[in-house]
């Protein structure tokens, strides 16, 4: 993981984590201690608080761990405000969903790259009942001017704009193809060669002259910024951060790259109820 993502290894941080574990429910604490052996933590410093994003790295999840993780998401009911979905959003899935998943994502975030695979599987299996809304949240502090904001991925905003320039030529389907293709080739952590944005555009048969003009203009800078500001209104402080909205308007927060099995468990529960 890149050094500017500030992985904490100090004794003070260890003691802080131990204190937070005690605040968890007993099942969740057991799960974290026994099954989340390889945990990667990104710490993003933002106004008023520090938020951690966690990911399970390459470990299978047994029934006890799965149930605890699903319950952890369900316990966040209505804890997060949501900026309503509009026609300007990028949406994939059914037109009449029972559940909407609004994801705030950064194209240079390695956890977002993993979660993109999870969400594509969700749409494949739940597409007649669930829709997926993608919103940009580049971790570059452009939309957050506070002194406590630490820029992690300065390249992410330009990559977000590139996806909008793909949308400009090919509509919503082309936007999603571009996002998926960028995630498939990026090494993440701000290491994607900018020239690869043109490579992806060319592989999708976009008009390269029009793509170049779009990239040089400010046509979609505002759209990316509006997504990020919407995320800040929903208390997003790291990526991926998703908000699940059920048919009754209740919200559930998914902070991090939860594996498909957890997302499926949450969705099955909400659809059943």
Could you characterize the architecture of this molecule?
Helices cover 46% and strands 16% of the residues. The chain has 273 residues and is of the alpha+beta class. It has a single domain, classed as Glutaredoxin (3-Layer(aba) Sandwich), CATH 3.40.30.10. The strands form 2 sheets. Strands 3-5-4-6-7 form a 5-stranded mixed β-sheet. A two-stranded antiparallel sheet has the order 1-2. Strand 6 and strand 7 form a beta hairpin. The longest helix has 30 residues. The N terminus is likely disordered.
Give the ordered list of helices and strands: HHEEHEEHEHHHHEEH
Structure summary, number of beta strands: 7
Going by CATH, the homologous superfamily would be: Glutaredoxin
Number of domains: 1
Overall mean confidence score, pLDDT: 83
- Please state the structural category: alpha+beta
Give the % helix. 40-55%
């Amino acid at each position: 993981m890149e050094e500017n993502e500030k992985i904490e290894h100090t004794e003070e941080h260890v003691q802080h984590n131990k204190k937070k574990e005690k605040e968890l429910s007993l099942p969740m604490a057991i799960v974290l201690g026994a099954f989340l052996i390889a945990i990667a933590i990104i710490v993003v410093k933002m106004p008023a608080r520090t938020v951690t994003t966690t990911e399970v790295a390459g470990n299978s999840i047994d029934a006890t761990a799965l149930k605890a993780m699903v319950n952890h998401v369900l316990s966040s009911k209505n804890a997060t405000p949501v900026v309503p979905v509009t026609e300007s959003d990028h949406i994939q899935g059914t037109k009449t969903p029972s559940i909407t998943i609004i994801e705030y994502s950064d194209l240079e975030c390695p956890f977002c790259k993993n979660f993109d695979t999870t969400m594509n599987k969700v749409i494949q299996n739940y597409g007649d009942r669930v829709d997926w809304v993608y919103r940009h949240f580049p971790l570059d502090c452009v939309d957050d001017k506070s002194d406590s904001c630490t820029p992690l991925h300065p390249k992410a905003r330009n990559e977000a704009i590139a996806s909008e320039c793909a949308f400009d030529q090919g509509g919503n389907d082309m936007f999603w193809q571009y996002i998926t293709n960028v995630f498939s080739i990026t090494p993440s952590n701000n290491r994607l060669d900018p020239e690869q944005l043109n490579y992806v555009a060319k592989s999708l048969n976009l008009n390269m002259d029009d793509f170049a003009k779009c990239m040089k203009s400010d046509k979609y800078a505002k759209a990316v910024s509006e997504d990020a500001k919407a995320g800040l209104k929903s208390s997003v402080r790291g990526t991926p951060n998703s908000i699940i909205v059920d048919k009754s308007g209740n919200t559930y927060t998914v902070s991090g790259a939860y594996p498909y099995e957890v997302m499926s468990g949450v969705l099955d529960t909400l659809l059943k109820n």
